[in-house]
Amino acid sequence: MSSPIIFYDIPSTLSVNAWSPNTWKTRYALNIKGVPYETVWVEYPDIEALAKKIGAPSTGTKDDGSPSYTLPIINDPNTGKVVSDSFLIAEYLDATYPGGNTLFPPGTKPLIAAFEGSVVGAIGGILPLQLALSCYILNPSSQKYFRATREATFGKKIEEFSPAGAHRDADWAKAKEGLVAVDGWFSKNGGGKFVMGDSISYADGVLGGWLAWVKIINESSAAWEDLAAWHGGRWSTYLTNLQPFAAVL
Amino acid sequence: MSSPIIFYDIPSTLSVNAWSPNTWKTRYALNIKGVPYETVWVEYPDIEALAKKIGAPSTGTKDDGSPSYTLPIINDPNTGKVVSDSFLIAEYLDATYPGGNTLFPPGTKPLIAAFEGSVVGAIGGILPLQLALSCYILNPSSQKYFRATREATFGKKIEEFSPAGAHRDADWAKAKEGLVAVDGWFSKNGGGKFVMGDSISYADGVLGGWLAWVKIINESSAAWEDLAAWHGGRWSTYLTNLQPFAAVL
Questions:
Q1: Residues of chain B neighbouring A196 (CB-CB closer than 8 A)
Q2: Which helix (H) or strand (E) holds B178?
Q3: In this complex, do A114 and B118 lie within 8 Å of one another by their Cβ atoms?
Q4: Among A51, A92, A125, A143, which is most buried by a count of CB atoms within 10 Å?
Q5: Coiled coil located at which positions (chains A, B) (predicted)?
């Protein structure tokens, strides 16, 4: 019996707690693999110190040239490995825990890596809207950090990212247009519940992670109700199909 | 022994004749499957009449609401089926000719459909450049048609799509940036010769089709020499690996 993997995620004020698309990808991956894990919740300003302390690799570079650190990170006490980056974590889980569901059927790693780009390309139009709304569901220390860093990136106030009204309506319209493409890809799966058909894969971690973010941030809004009905209810049905892999442990 | 499939492609003034990315996808697919086929060359102004004559489905809608027709189209005398659209043709070939190489390994249709979106998204920055240069290698009747329709779409003269100099250099820089992403996906394939690793698939028809177009239109130019050397020579090596499937029959 293996010891639980430590999974570092970013908390929120919501009852589900988990919200970030990038950490949701890892949460789905862990649940799909069925490996024991437990979540340690880390506020944004504490991520860098944690990563350095446990020896997690950086995932990028800041404007000043120094390394940047992001969640998800996992720390596997069974192997002593610390892994950053959702895709690298999924690869690690398949390689280290070959039992249970397979995240990457043979030959699909390049396609699933590209799929992530496709999904972001298709529904990236709501990124400013999603970031703005995400800010408000964070705990105070994360909210302060998130606001400062995202406002620096976009060069404007969070409140100006996607103001309610015509601007936000246009962002939703872009999302709907993008989901037409995703619906077209999905419809090639022979009618199965998951991206690749009847078998779940990391492609579901990717698409599920993004859609979970949209649902969680907009839940109970008219906008989500609207999106949930698009394409014959495909997106709400899909998230329901992923529910067995959506446990927040 | 089956009769050869009739494959309708668009000719050019180049010695290789075949040049279009969309028909190259089908040519790769036919060669990968190893089914007998022969090419019938059709100039742009003759495509619609041909499609109507043989009962090929339309692939879109014109601005005036009437159906539009595009190549590739195949006409399979063994089944009496006429199929339009490169992806639908690839699906048809796998379903009808299950022997030989498999274009879509189980569950990969949605991923390969999305992959096409990813590739176009990544290297679409050189689309205006590619269209402009493609115009000049067409036969007179196709060139006149191509110029008129593409100039109407972009609202400017072909010569203004990507003028040599700073504008064109910027288009190449965008292509290079986009190919960084494709290189990242490709590098997940375990070092194999093809997108999915050691086994060829329709993902290679897609990526090969686009890269073949770039190479054919720019061959012997400094720009292609430059691109061929990017990413450790990945792209020229890749097209060489696809050469056994690049016959123009």
A1: 106-108, 110-111
A2: helix B166-186
A3: yes
A4: A51
A5: none
Number of H helices, E strands in chain A: 9, 6
Taking the C-alpha atoms of residue A134 and residue A142, their distance in angstroms, rounded to an integer, is: 11
CA B50 – CA B70 distance, rounded (Å): 10
| Extended strands (E) in A85-155 | none
Q: Do B5-96 and B109-245 fold alike per CATH?
A: no
Closest CA to A36 of A103, A102, A105, A100: A100
Instruction: Spell out which residues of chain A touch residue B197, defining contact as CB-CB under 8 Å.
Output: 106-107, 110
Q: Is the pLDDT score of A172 beyond 60?
A: yes
Nearest CB neighbour to B195, from listed A110, A188, A195: A110
Q: Which residues contact B148 (CB under 8 A, 6 or more apart)?
A: none
Measuring CA to CA, how many Å separate B133 from each of B20, B46, B158, B161, B176?
12, 22, 9, 9, 18
| Chain B contact set for A205 (CB, 8 A) | none
Residue spans per domain, chain B:
5-96, 109-245
Task: Quote the Cα angle for A204-A192-A92, to 5°.
Answer: 30
Q: CA-to-CA distance for B27 and B249, rounded, in angstroms?
A: 9
Q: Which two tokens stand for residue B4?
A: 């050869």
Residue type at position A187: S
Residues of chain B found within 8 Å of residue A183, distances taken between Cβ atoms: none
Residue A183, amino acid: D
Q: CA–CA separation, B199 vs B197, rounded Å? A: 6
Nearest-angstrom CA–CA distance, A130 and A116: 17
CATH code for residues B109-245: 1.20.1050.10
Secondary structure, 3-state, B7-21: EEECCCCCCCCCCCH
d(CA B48, CA B69) in angstroms, rounded, equals 6
pLDDT band at residue A77, thresholds of 50, 70 and 90?
A: very high
Strand partners, A67: A61
**CB burial readout B191-208, b (16+ within 10 A) else e:** eeebbbbebbbbbbbbbb
Torsion of CA B161, B164, B167, B168, to 10 degrees: 80
User: What is the DSSP secondary-structure string of B134-174?
Assistant: HHTTS-HHHHHHHHHHHHHHHTS-GGGTS-TTHHHHHHHHH
Place domain A5-96 in its CATH homologous superfamily: Glutaredoxin (3.40.30.10)
Contact B115 A111 (CB under 8 A): yes
Distance CA A106, CA B194 (A): 13
Checking ipTM against 0.90, whether it exceeds it is yes
Checking DSSP bridges between strand A37-41 and strand A5-9, what pairing results, if any?
parallel
The answer to whether the CB atoms of A117 and B203 lie below 8 A apart is no
Condensed to tens digits (0 to 9), the pLDDT of residues B106-145 reads 999 999 999 999 999 898 889 999 999 999 999 999 999 9
